[in-house]
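ok, trying the design again with the full structure, not the truncated one.
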C-alpha cells in the first residue's frame, strides 16, 4: 500500500482531486450551495408565476362592471343611494374551540 503513495503520479492525482473537491473556487462544496440556491430561486419563480396568474384573473374580474361593483362593496363598504349596509361579523371558530 505504501508503494502506491511513493509514486509521483498518484500523489499528483490525489493532490489534484483534493484541490478540486475542497480548495478550488469551483469546488464541490460551492457547487452544492449554488445548486440549493438555484432550487430555492426556481421555487420562488414558480410561486410568483402562480401569483401573476391569480392577479390576472382578479384584474379580468375587476374589468367587468359587476366585478368592480362587488369589489367596491366588499372592500370599501360602498353603497348605492337609498341603500342601507349592515356589517355582520362572525365569531372566529378558533375562539369557539378554545372556549368549549
Amino acid at each position: 500500500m505504501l508503494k502506491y503513495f511513493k509514486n509521483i503520479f498518484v500523489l499528483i492525482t490525489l493532490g489534484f482531486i483534493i484541490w478540486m473537491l475542497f480548495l478550488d473556487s469551483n469546488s464541490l462544496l460551492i457547487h452544492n450551495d449554488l445548486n440549493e440556491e438555484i432550487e430555492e430561486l426556481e421555487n420562488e419563480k414558480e410561486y410568483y408565476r402562480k401569483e401573476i396568474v391569480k392577479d390576472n384573473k382578479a384584474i379580468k374580474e375587476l374589468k367587468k362592471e359587476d366585478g368592480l361593483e362587488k369589489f367596491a362593496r366588499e372592500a370599501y363598504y360602498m353603497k348605492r343611494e337609498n341603500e342601507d349596509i349592515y356589517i355582520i361579523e362572525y365569531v372566529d371558530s378558533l375562539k369557539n374551540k378554545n372556549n368549549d
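Keeping the full-length input from now on. The helical segments are 2-6, 8-23, 28-63, 65-76, 93-99.
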